[in-house]
Amino acid sequence: MLPTIELTVPAAILGSGTIVGPKEAQGPLGESFDLSLQDTLANQSSWEKAEQHLMQTAIRLALEQARIQAENIDVLIAGDLLNQIITSSFCARGLGIPFLGIYGACSSFTEGLAIGGLLLQNESVNHVLCATSSHNSTAERQYRYPTEYGGQLPPTAQFTVTGAGAAVLGKRAKAGPHLTRITLGRVIDLGVTNPFEMGAAMAPAAADTLYRHFQDTGLEPDYYDIILTGDLARVGKKILIDLMQNKGVNLSGNYEDCGVLIYDTSQKVNAGGSGCACSAVVVLGHMLKELYKGSIKRLLVAATGALMSPTSYQQGESIPGIAHAVAIEWIDGGIGNG
Amino acid sequence: MLPTIELTVPAAILGSGTIVGPKEAQGPLGESFDLSLQDTLANQSSWEKAEQHLMQTAIRLALEQARIQAENIDVLIAGDLLNQIITSSFCARGLGIPFLGIYGACSSFTEGLAIGGLLLQNESVNHVLCATSSHNSTAERQYRYPTEYGGQLPPTAQFTVTGAGAAVLGKRAKAGPHLTRITLGRVIDLGVTNPFEMGAAMAPAAADTLYRHFQDTGLEPDYYDIILTGDLARVGKKILIDLMQNKGVNLSGNYEDCGVLIYDTSQKVNAGGSGCACSAVVVLGHMLKELYKGSIKRLLVAATGALMSPTSYQQGESIPGIAHAVAIEWIDGGIGNG
Predict the structure, then answer these.
(1) By CB neighbour count within 10 A (0-12 exposed, 13-18 middle, 19+ buried), where does B314 fall?
(2) According to a count of CB atoms within 10 Å of the terminal CB, is the N or C end of chain B lower?
(3) Considering the entire predicted model, what is its pTM?
(4) Residue B209, min C-alpha distance to chain A (Å)
(5) In angstroms, what is the C-alpha Rg of chain A?
(6) Out of A104, A185, A311, whose CB is closest to B86?
């Protein structure tokens, strides 16, 4: 089984782009996103098209910040929550570059970064574009109820983030944030069957990945300035802290969850945020800015995914979870080439 | 944009497994598959669970043939046609190894091999397990109509293959089939909107990938003993030959399509087979045996995928296609390590 990989050539994040919906823009991290929508339809004829607009915009912003044309990108790696990842496929259609579609539910953000970082170890791969998105109205109606239905939600439920994040990875030697370490996740399922308890379903997978990360590397949690999970939200976050405590790892000092950070408790999001975009916009929007400011230097992100479908749920299956961890560290330059 | 990659370390196919449904077992290649089902439900309580059984079985067979335990596999790369790729996720749950979920519709077979081959270029990655599956009854009801409905199909429609294929990739130096070259596909969409004309929708993507493969490598089509597309079937196959002819590439000598090969015209499959398993079982079942027999030495496979969803179709979108090409060649040993 693959242990945590230390990337021989750390993958530089050459540029990134984030865009969110109005609710996320009003949240505590609102200022750190590049763009936000006035309304979640984004002047499109459907929410699915609005989600495409989000991912296209995040990609455009990332390419602009990296000062690279799409045709100079070697491969786009993208995934989203919609059936057949249509957001990603339809965005790829407009770019004219090789495309690898991925699906890891809300772990797609770090799954994409991980594959991108590993592909960059190939000599012939120089620039990888990673993108992911989610939209509250497309996801809710596909997984649970249409938002127009106004179904009541229990306090353990989470609110799918409307937004998209994209990053250009490369080998450039300049100072900046780099992916340095990757721990690929295993599918862990402790039998949670309630689709309104995603945090509880995913926490054991996050615990497995983070524990293996520290075991493999010999690092202590306080090596990182911050350890982030993707969307365990308030319920799953507590469970993860307990699970790690049971394994002898104390996360209480520097651990946060993107689903907790992105909304204020006054925003009626129950346990917090979820969705592929949750970790993508918090990391590529807020956290990268903190890295550039120098307030943090080392970040470990474990985006979490619940790998169920409405069909598997209706057939009585429990909810398998997964979490892929990626370390992002400020490197002062001189590493890599190109 | 990434050109065709010549793998520095060719990825050995150390073992493979195939299983098909009864109809595929009765087809012209029936003898070449490892196992077949008596009926498509496979003693399970749902077709979705039957499809899981197919993938689990293919994985077990591949591990056995490669003489490797699951825990010594570094990563499972798997994808299928079901929403949220539940077949792959639920199979991964039982293996306890890192998992990367992919989605490329029916191109998932070569998408997985391609990612696996590229990951193996990393020093720390030694064994990758790739798997894919499709099931006629799960796919038809999700994408078009439940099979019980008995809807009539036009002659351009294709029949989703019931089956699964898995392969263990590694670096071993022994003589055998190896992945040698990879051309990642771009999303190409010439505006086909009819979900019963998948072959026509995917042929332009296959043409793009194959043309770039020959341009990038300087190879002529007759370098390969056989060039295979995944599931263009009879309609798309003719279109591909024409498209390539227009680009000055003559495929007429050694080109075949897995969707044409897998069924006899008497089997009432309209234009031919489709589904992730179509190319997987034809290549890992039939073609690998031909490589071992020595009747062919060099094979180019471009599995083709239609990246639409029922939602995108209902919203009036056309059907984007993609095709990833992988060269599989007999190498007499002495390359690689481990």
Answers:
(1) exposed
(2) C
(3) 0.97
(4) 9
(5) 18
(6) A311
